[in-house]
Design brief:
InterPro entries: AB_hydrolase_fold, Esterase-like, S-formylglutathione_hydrol
EC number: 3.1.2.12
Family: Belongs to the esterase D family.
Helix content: 25-40%
Number of strands: 9
CATH superfamily: Alpha/Beta hydrolase fold, catalytic domain
Shape: globular
Bound molecules: the ligand N[C@@H](CCC(=O)N[C@@H](CSC=O)C(=O)NCC(=O)O)C(=O)O
Structural class: alpha/beta
Strand content: 15-25%
GO molecular function, one term: S-formylglutathione hydrolase activity
Number of helices: 9
Strand order of the largest sheet: 1-2-3-5-4-6-7-8-9
Catalytic activity: S-formylglutathione + H2O = formate + glutathione + H(+)
Order of helices and strands: EEEEHHEHEHEHHEHHEH
Number of domains: 1
Largest sheet: 9 strands, mixed
Distance between the termini: 27 Å
CATH topology: Rossmann fold
CATH class: Alpha Beta
Length: 280
């Protein structure tokens, strides 16, 4: 494998889960990610589905808890789950908060000191990581989808809407849909992007859907017992804007589900199917 260090690999549903690290030229440090190669990948290139995780996660949470491999094996999709931020950068205070810094890169390209030298997660996800994946794994590089959870749901919506030519499908579990209007987003954007809110708009799904829209229907699942629903996630704001601009949206409120991976695992089959249909 070129430029990749294999950390560990495991047989899974007749395919392989692997954990890898590499020297990132975008984030200027070591980055980690996980890949699930379905059994079909041993015979031919397959489409790729990226999953962006939420606050406090590493590349492991999704592979261990989401139960996605079974469905990826069924449909012949490769899964890629990157880490949620650079780590051990030496930036003072990077480990102080669980919702900012380490584990909380928010999938933006930071423009402020001291974060901008390493916290370039948007470019890492959209450019460097796919280039690395396509060079090292049997992918159909023109067939990419993206999904995510919470902070990662925000990241998936932003990456897809800003790059509809790169991502044929998008979905999210309990995404932060209007980060400019919630405490997690305000904290992250003001520190990574500065206080000029104009710069925040290109990372806010509810703004982007107004400006850009997306070429196909967006699937979102949201638990009604999610403790972050009304304070941080605000799916009704996103739904309202989608309705105004006639963006197709399948927003499903799931009764009594919370914010956890138990919720994610419960609806994983539907999300993988959504992407498999779009990715052919
Ligand atoms: N420490 C927090 C809870 C953190 C949390 O719930 N993280 C979620 C993502 S939240 C939005 O991005 C998560 O995925 N955690 C990892 C897991 O494996 O569950 C608190 O105290 O509330």
């Amino acid at each position: 494998m070129t430029n990749l260090k294999v950390i560990s690999e495991y047989q899974c549903f007749a395919g392989k889960v692997g954990f890898y690290s590499h020297a990132s030229s975008t984030c200027h440090g070591e980055m980690r990610f996980a890949v699930y190669q379905p059994p079909q990948a041993s015979q031919k290139p397959v489409p790729v589905l990226y999953f962006l995780s939420g606050l406090t996660c590493t590349e492991e949470n999704f592979m261990v808890k989401a139960g996605a491999q079974r469905y990826a094996a069924e449909y012949g999709l490769m899964l890629v789950a990157p880490d949620t931020s650079p780590r051990n950068t030496g930036i003072a205070g990077e480990d102080d908060d669980w919702d900012f810094g380490t584990g909380a890169g928010f999938y933006v390209d930071a423009t402020t000191e001291p974060w901008k030298a390493h916290y370039q997660m948007y470019s890492y996800i959209v450019q460097e990581l796919p280039t690395l994946i396509n060079a090292n794994f049997p992918t159909q590089s023109e067939k990419q989808g993206i999904f995510g959870h919470s902070m990662g749901g925000h990241g998936a919506l932003v990456c897809a809407m800003r790059n509809p030519h790169l991502y044929k499908s998008v979905s999210a579990f309990a995404p932060i849909t209007a980060p400019m209007r919630c405490p997690w987003g305000e904290k992250a954007f003001s520190r990574y992007l500065g206080t000029n809110e104009e710069a925040w708009r290109s990372y806010d799904a509810s703004e982007l859907v107004k400006q850009l829209g997306y070429h196909s229907s967006i699937l979102i699942d949201q638990g009604t017992a999610d403790k972050f629903l009304t304070s941080q996630l605000l799916p009704d704001v996103f739904a309202q804007v989608c309705a105004e601009v006639k963006q197709p949206l399948n927003l499903r409120y799931q009764q009594d589900y919370d914010h956890s991976y138990y919720f994610i695992a419960s609806f994983m089959a539907d999300h993988i199917r959504h992407h498999a249909i779009a990715l052919g």
